[in-house]
Amino acid sequence: MCQFINCLICESRMEYYFSKEYIEKPYSDYMKEIGKVDYYRCKNCGFVISRTHIEMENVKWEKLNDIHHYFEKQKQDTLESAKNESPNPPPYLQQAAMINLLQKNGILSQENILDFAGGYGTLQNILEKYYNIFSLIYDPFVNSPGKKYVKKEELGKYKTVLNSAMFEHIRNRSDLDNVNRLVDEGGSLIIHTVICENIPKDGNWFYINPVHCAFHTNKSMDILMNQWGYISSIYCPTSKCWVFFKKEPNNLTEKIININVELQEPYLYYKKGFVDYWKGF
Prior knowledge:
This protein is α/β, with parallel strands linked by helices.
């Protein structure tokens, strides 16, 4: 096997970083046919990805994603099992509150929203029930009854495209580019994932699991933003979300200052380019 591959983000050389074997349940049940997973790191931007997942047959990848159904069943069984076994669910309520606040302050559009890889529709339900904000969902692996899902062939352009915990699931560059293509000209992209200065060389790092196979750094995300044509971003620590802008809303910095003053806390951080908020690891 070749000891390096090319980076999905900057096309620089990626070299072997570390390996992991999933021996703990329930992960071991899903990974027994796959075995050891090899992770590679880009020497330029620090992006880390599993070569094992890149080279995995699509049928195996789709089967592996059944793990989401396992954790959803655990949630439905008892709240206690969800606490113990659900792998780092996104802060959906805080995300919905952020979207509502940004809309009311003219920073995000109040129409034409798509929740990409929206799973079982938790965020959509919170937005609609508590904030009267309506969105559509697209998810290739989940179709929950009663939710407003969009089929792949029905996807169009949207003023706001949001996704919670999706960027760590990508196996090739098109997985990322297909999300960005859905953002309307002048629209906004909201992402929730772990982005830090460096990805730890540690198979026990909290964010690694069988379907989390790609890990982004501050540098790799700044590069990706520029490639896609976004000029600035904001970060909300409470919702753990970044918002990327292809065209800044009018008086954006003034609006952010006013929001922070009103809430009496640094609720939003702004920067030209990517907000490199997390410096740890």
